[in-house]
Amino acid sequence: xxxxxxxxxxxxxxxxxxxxxxxxxxxxxxxxxxxxxxxxxxxxxxxxxxxxxxxxxxxxxxxxxxxxxxxxxxxxxxxxxxxxxxxxxxxxxxxxxxxxxxxxxxxxxxxxxxxxxxxxxxxxxxxxxxxxxxxxxxxxxxxxxxxxxxxxxxxxxxxxxxxxxxxxxxxxxxxxxxxxxxxxxxxxxxxxxxxxxxxxxxxxxxxxxxxxxxxxxxxxxxxxxxxxxxxxxxxx
Length: 236
Hints:
The protein is an alpha+beta fold. It has 8 helices and 10 strands.
């Protein structure tokens, strides 16, 4: 078990209610850097080195979108304390990451705390076509790769047909330059950020885990990006 904790949950930092609904996000606010940046990035680097097949996947059809989301991220990073050049990025923790357009999601996995999922419209639904997912909360990338939104959310009991339609409308409606965001928050016994499998949780739940999830549309490929920034704090 790897324990990496932040000081406060994001909604406390922002002075917002505990569980707001979907709201507008500033165009450059879909990426964040917090006090756990260095330790989270070290953990991501370890996962990408030792379990790459489990945390990184990209369909050939998503390569252009993966390059586009990396390009969009490189525009945002200077405002977050990064120095970006044509061939490399100097990170806030002192690391230097090479910009490799042949492996854009791998590069993102070494740059940002967020997990990044690419969803592309196929027929009437958005399908997961690529992701760097180091910090899953009870789901495995291998189980969701190539599946539409409904399949991704199986077996979530609350995800009924009504919610499925609402989520699909949300993905259909998000506009270029107008991202959306939401939070969730759950109590956990295990604070490990990498939790691909749901486990029996009979122990005292002494940690809170919160995800800031942003949804943005790419201007060229029209793909939708789902970014996930994860906080874990110790409960009172």
